[in-house]
Amino acid sequence: MNYLEALSRRYSVKKFNKExxxxxxxxxxxxxxxxxxxxxxxxxxxxxxxxxxxxKQKLIPAxxxxxxxxxxxxxxxxxxxxxxxxxxIRGYFNHISEVREIPLETLDLFKNSINQHISQKTGDEIxxxxxxxxxxxxxxxxxxxxxxxxxxxxxxxxxxxxxxxILNINPETEKVTVTLALGYRSEEDxxxxxxxxxxxxxxxxxxx
Length: 208
Ligand SMILES: Cc1cc2nc3c(=O)[nH]c(=O)nc-3n(C[C@H](O)[C@H](O)[C@H](O)COP(=O)(O)O)c2cc1C
What we know:
A four-stranded antiparallel β-sheet has the order 1-2-4-3, sandwiched between helices. The relative contact order is 0.23. It is built from nine helices and four strands, in the order ααβααβαααβαβα. The longest helix is centred in the middle third of the chain and has 25 residues. The model has no long low-confidence stretch (mean pLDDT 97). It has one domain: 3-Layer(aba) Sandwich (NADH Oxidase). It is globular and about 60 Å long. By secondary structure, it is of the alpha+beta class. Bound molecules: flavin mononucleotide.
């Protein structure tokens, strides 16, 4: 299947058929999320993968439309950082030095520029910036899933305090930004037969 076919087949599933995604396929989809680009490479997010039936059941009351949660194979929860601590940046540079096998000092210039960049932003700006990075992960996961013939539904329709309470998220430092249900579409989900509604090209694109 080429990518346009995969993206045309993709739709936001309202009801899955409860079948479980094979581990290897799930792993590959998650790897595509891991390989996402992020501003300054800081990956200001973490990703919870809900696979246990028990946890899915627990999360049902957190969603306004729970039919996806009760029928999906896995639920991915993307959590954005609200604060970028100096310690976090230090950890990032230690990691670069380790992975690329280069002395830490050679990264000083880059490290100082990142520290300066981050310190100039207000708390709200940091958080808005961090949330945007999470949506790049979301898009990559959805894209990879479509290519793997795995169905998805991105969801922001949840009760913030309820989901964060269940997942033990500290709202002072983190926020659940968006979730993605994965699985296989149910034959009963009539949304799969609906035509896609998208702006016509002349309204969407401007060639200059
Ligand atoms: C960030 C984001 C959040 C969304 N939240 C929900 C949601 O909470 N519940 C839902 O059923 N669909 C949700 N959707 C799906 C959109 O309604 C859907 O993508 C749009 O109507 C286009 O339809 P399609 O994805 O089937 O092509 C969300 C989509 C995005 C990108």
